[in-house]
Amino acid sequence: MQHFTTHLHDEAGTGALGAALARALLPGLAIHLHGDLGAGKTALTRALLHAAGYQGHVKSPTYTLVEPYTIQIAQQAVEVMHFDLYRMASPDEFLEAGFREYFNPDTICIVEWPEKADSALPPPDISVLLSVSRVSDKGRDVELQALSDKGSQCLARLKFAPNL
């Protein structure tokens, strides 16, 4: 399986990684974003959506739990569901809300705080870990790991060179 790590020096680096991911997306991907509050999960998702052609405002779904967006991949409209499960009290809430139906071969699901839904959440194709850099206290460290064949295909297509 594919594995990728890098250091993002600033917000522009996060935006550049989001743009690179947008160019590598495949329909049906499930991407889990891990990291503390303020680690850049929503910033990465916002950059990805804008780079994939979404023109509107991208807000954090902290209170709505999910926000839908439509992007273009290979001139096909693809639905992206952006989840933020931070406020969920149990995995049952995920199931009761009917969110599992969005995880299908056509929809891209990006999930912040996936640990809140635990075993109710379908497994990811890509796991992303964002953390504030421990070395310099500036920027973010990021690790992307493919956990399926589809995730490996996506990361194999990823073309990203951080600004050094």
From TrEMBL:
A Pfam family assignment: TsaE
Primary residence: cytoplasm
Compartments reported by the entry: Cytoplasm
UniProt entry keywords in alphabetical sequence: ATP-binding, Cytoplasm, Magnesium, Metal-binding, Nucleotide-binding, tRNA processing
Superkingdom of origin organism: Bacteria
InterPro entries in alphabetical order: P-loop_NTPase, T6A_TsaE
Family named by the database record: Belongs to the TsaE family.
Name used for this protein in its record: tRNA threonylcarbamoyladenosine biosynthesis protein TsaE
Gene name for this UniProt entry: tsaE
